[in-house]
Specification:
The structure is a single chain. By secondary structure, the chain is an all-alpha fold. The chain has one domain. The protein contains three helices and no strands. Helix 2 packs antiparallel against helix 3. It is elongated and about 45 Å long.
């Protein structure tokens, strides 16, 4: 049940970011599109976890790698956002 809620959260967050890209200034648009795909992929990985099982099982190493890469990409999104914010303030 938790994975369904988590998947809905990530997909919903991605859709919200995609909608906000039309409101934000142009320098944030590429970031918003990239973040949309990252959040969407993270939600899809949660849906797959429901169907294929826990990613801690040895044969599911690919799902663990997928989730780790998603977390790294989300951290990259935040870094990208803060760099853009710092450039606008200077």
């Amino acid at each position: 049940m938790f994975n369904i809620l988590e998947a809905a959260f990530w997909v919903g967050l991605g859709c919200a970011v995609l909608l906000l890209r039309n409101i934000k200034i142009g320098i944030y648009r590429q970031l918003a599109i990239f973040a949309f795909f990252i959040f969407l992929l993270f939600g899809v990985s949660d849906v797959l976890e429901i169907y294929v099982g826990n990613f801690f099982e040895p044969e599911m190493y690919w799902l663990l790698v997928w989730k780790v890469l998603n977390v790294i990409a989300i951290i990259g999104v935040f870094i990208w956002y803060f760099v853009l914010r710092l450039r606008r303030e200077i």
